[in-house]
């Protein structure tokens, strides 16, 4: 299925006008970044990169798309002819999926002609804004859960295709499985789930429902014990499955208190290995509040797939440099006071202190984008060609100098060719591992849930000529 | 493309266990409703019904789906065989798309065997929860805009497919167009858009950009005048297009103040017909605040596609009645205190006073679902067979009696056959018209933006045997 029309109309009308006046071929650099983090958040998590690269490969204007554009008179014939042959032939670098980001972090940098690069704006933002919002929320939840596993169960509270992307992004942010079958199929994610209240209510009584479930799914299943009375539900669950019961699930009431009672009841009955799964409008705060309760697994729905109060990241796709009439690439930026952006192509690196903790996000202006593949990036000495900065526009002294710089941009697309390492199931797995490493690198306070500033300042490093 | 795996795993494992113990064939009634409106909201808007019916027609387990389920061991062979032949053969009634709803309104009622109906839970909720959240936000915005048109421009802040659904739902809620091309193609919606700041920045100066745009798109285009200085931008816009310029767009700064200045400048120059379009993080409150400014069109993005603070409706899909061992359909409900639901199949009607204003949402228990097609529903006398109620569990005296009852359920699917009136472009158009009528019927205070209770109480009408 083509992704080409998942696009704002103005991308195509700008293309038409630029083709007509000869500026469509100007070399351009577009940057994706966010001006601020959602209120109180200390970091964001890049997600969706792999999905964007997959979508890029089907960004083609076929007969269906062209016929509709022609019939509606959206653009003229010259533009239709350009679109019919459209292939992105430029280059894209960006933060590796799973990496954390801060305000102004250039998470994606697209370079190509105006024509080929402007068309990707809507698609790139749709994917990165949604997926990163979910991964950012997921990371706070898995952080609050410490080493207890979190499961994604929010499909019903998100658009049906967004639900698949949300499951993927949740795994990038540390979740270990999802209820969404299509996410399992498409991205190789572990899927989970056994039964809802409807299954108990379908039966004449709870005993019959539990017996049927155990007979079909085995004693290792998870029985939902709160349809009627939790204490009796647990009794009946043990009667049906024995002490080898896999888990019980609690989906209502005072989860912390109930978990303690149920744990006691299970232990008394000898079901010491039976786990307790809790669900029911959990978010990162509820998870943190359950830290002292004997809970084994958290199932999270609504709050996760709606970004826990921040359903989009507010990322923008801005032209930061373009070839002028003189053939030179020049920085450009909008002047309006409330929506300023900084022109010019920028590299990015994270400054780490002697202990390997992040102290600043460093944007490197005035030179080519600094790109290094992730594994190499952990080699401190490789970044040694970047001189120490003597301060930045927004950073503290310690943020601007000392330690070492870990480059953040990796090559994603070179001359139109997508690097396959970033897509498919392998891309998701790698992103999840990378997120853990990137989060572990943050200052200790960065994982607090309370509202605060970005965990590290973003500073600009001017290297001059 | 099949929609069958856009489903939580537990729907399939419940199916497996029910097939094994013979309960899968029990006749069931599932109801979609929401326990409460988002904080402060006075009504919700049903949207997504048409999309759900389209998705139902491709809810088929083909080779791709079955092979994956088999390889993963999600369900046993018997269940796979059932899924291979799956077709929904039951019946669905619901609120017509565009209709307003309140807490407990049974917006969709699905009747069939447990097996065929339980499988639809996730898909139905994903679609209705997302689309209704967007339409509900859209309705507040178009209400605040009174008779000024609102345009949907939020694709970049939503998942790329959710963006298409959001555009559709926005139109159900009163928006007159969208920037999203795929939404235009798929649902016949008007699409809009001309240029972004990137187009101005691409050029060596604003004059060149405006000249190029007018040359290509005509003087009737909309020029974005705030890239550098608004006053000079307007001068240059008029120089490029003349006083026949279609519109100028303001996307930053104090929109109200700027609109007044720009209107004055345009009028002074003789461009009295040139319109002013404003965009820039608008929501219903910002739109209301601009009521006194000389603004012609509102373009709304982020806030719309994220539901203006309520990105999901919290609708649930609950088993409310099922055939027992005795073959009788019996009401069922979960007992937990914080998530009660009312068992039993329920009809629904809106009680209108003598002036045709809604005074209550009436749930009719203890009898078959009351169904009437929309046009007939406006015939007061047709509902005359429903006796006046003498009060309800939650309503005022006036809510429970007097006036007339307008039935709310319409047939959507009969014996597995989808009524084509609800799908495609025609379905969207009809839903938008219906929403206007339904909103106009609400009590006068219902359209206030300030936080308050549901505009009318939901009452239960007990008809006895």
Structure description:
The structure is a homodimer of 465-residue chains. Chain A is an alpha/beta fold. Among the domains of chain A are: 9-135 and 310-326 and 410-445, nicotinate phosphoribosyltransferase (Alpha-Beta Barrel); 193-294, TIM Barrel, CATH 3.20.20. In chain A, 36% of the residues lie in helices and 19% in strands. Chain A contains 17 helices and 19 strands. In chain A, strands 13-12-1-5-3-17-18 form a seven-stranded antiparallel β-sheet. In chain A, strands 7-6-11-10-9-8 form a six-stranded parallel β-sheet. Chain A has a four-stranded mixed β-sheet with strand order 16-14-15-19. In chain A, strand 17 and strand 18 form a beta hairpin. In chain A, helix 6 (121-144) packs across helix 7. The model of chain A is unreliable at 373-400 (pLDDT under 50). The interface between A and B is large, with 107 and 107 residues.
CATH class value of one domain in chain A = Alpha Beta
Which CATH architecture of one domain in chain A would you pick?
Alpha-Beta Barrel
Q: Sheet with the most strands of chain A?
A: 7 strands, antiparallel
The proportion of residues forming helix of chain A, as a percent range, comes to 25-40%
Taking strands numbered 1, 2, ... along the chain, how are they ordered across the largest sheet of chain A? 13-12-1-5-3-17-18
**Helix vs. strand class of chain A:** alpha/beta
Give the strand tally of chain A: 19
Low-confidence stretches of chain A: 373-400
Global geometry of chain A: globular
In angstroms, what separates the terminal alpha carbons of chain A? 47 Å
- Biggest interface, chains and residue tallies: A-B, 107 and 107 residues
CATH topology of one domain in chain A: nicotinate phosphoribosyltransferase
Q: If you compute it from the alpha carbons, what radius of gyration of chain A comes out, rounded to the nearest whole angstrom?
A: 25 Å
* Assembly classification: homodimer
Mean pLDDT of chain A: 91
In DSSP terms, counting alpha (H) and pi (I) runs of 4 or more, how many helices of chain A?
17
CATH fourth-tier homologous superfamily of one domain in chain A: nicotinate phosphoribosyltransferase
Keywords (chains A, B): Glycosyltransferase, Ligase, Phosphoprotein, Pyridine nucleotide biosynthesis, Transferase
Enzyme class (chains A, B): ligase
GO molecular function (chains A, B): glycosyltransferase activity; nicotinate phosphoribosyltransferase activity
Family (chains A, B): Belongs to the NAPRTase family.
């Amino acid at each position: 299925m083509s992704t080409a029309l998942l696009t704002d109309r103005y991308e195509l009308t700008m293309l038409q006008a630029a083709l007509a006046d000869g500026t469509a071929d100007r070399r351009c650099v577009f940057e994706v970044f966010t001006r601020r983090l959602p209120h109180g958040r200390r970091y964001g998590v890049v997600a969706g990169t792999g999905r964007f690269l997959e979508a890029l490969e089907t960004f083609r204007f076929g007969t269906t798309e062209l016929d509709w554009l022609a019939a509606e008179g959206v653009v003229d014939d010259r533009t239709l002819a350009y679109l019919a042959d459209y292939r992105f032939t430029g280059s894209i670098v960006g933060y590796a999926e799973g990496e954390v980001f801060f305000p102004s972090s250039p998470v994606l940098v697209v370079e190509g002609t105006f024509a080929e690069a402007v068309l990707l704006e809507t698609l790139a933002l749709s994917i990165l804004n949604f997926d990163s919002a979910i991964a950012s929320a997921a990371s706070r939840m898995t952080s609050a859960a410490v080493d207890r596993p979190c499961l994604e169960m929010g499909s019903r509270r998100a658009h049906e295709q967004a639900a698949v992307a949300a499951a993927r992004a949740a795994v990038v942010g540390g979740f270990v499985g999802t209820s969404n079958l299509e996410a399992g199929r498409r991205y190789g994610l572990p899927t989970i789930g056994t039964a809802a209240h409807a299954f108990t209510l379908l039966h004449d009584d709870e005993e019959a429902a539990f017996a049927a479930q155990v007979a079909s799914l085995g004693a290792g299943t998870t029985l939902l014990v709160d349809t009627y009375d939790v204490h009796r539900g647990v009794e009946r669950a043990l009667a049906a499955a024995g002490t080898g019961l896999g888990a019980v699930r609690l989906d209502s009431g005072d989860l912390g208190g109930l978990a303690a009672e149920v744990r006691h009841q299970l232990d008394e009955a000898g079901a010491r290995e039976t786990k307790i799964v809790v669900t029911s409008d959990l978010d990162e705060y509820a998870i943190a509040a359950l830290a002292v309760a004997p809970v084994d697994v958290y199932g999270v729905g609504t709050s996760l797939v709606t970004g826990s109060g921040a359903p989009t990241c507010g990322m923008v796709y801005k032209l930061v440099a373009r070839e002028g009439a003189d053939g030179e690439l020049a920085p450009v930026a909008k002047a309006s006071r409330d929506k300023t952006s900084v022109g010019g192509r920028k590299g990015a690196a994270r400054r780490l202190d002697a202990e390997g903790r992040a102290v600043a996000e460093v944007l490197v202006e005035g030179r080519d984008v600094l790109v290094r593949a992730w594994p190499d990036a952990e080699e401190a000495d490789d970044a040694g060609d970047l001189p120490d900065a003597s301060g930045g526009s927004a950073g503290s002294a310690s943020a601007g100098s000392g330690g070492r710089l870990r480059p953040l941009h990796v090559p994603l697309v070179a001359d139109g060719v997508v690097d396959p390492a970033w897509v498919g199931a392998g891309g998701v797995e790698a992103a999840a591992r990378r997120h853990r490493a990137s989060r572990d690198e943050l200052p200790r306070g960065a994982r607090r849930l309370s509202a605060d500033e970005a965990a590290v300042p973003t500073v600009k490093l001017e290297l001059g000529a």
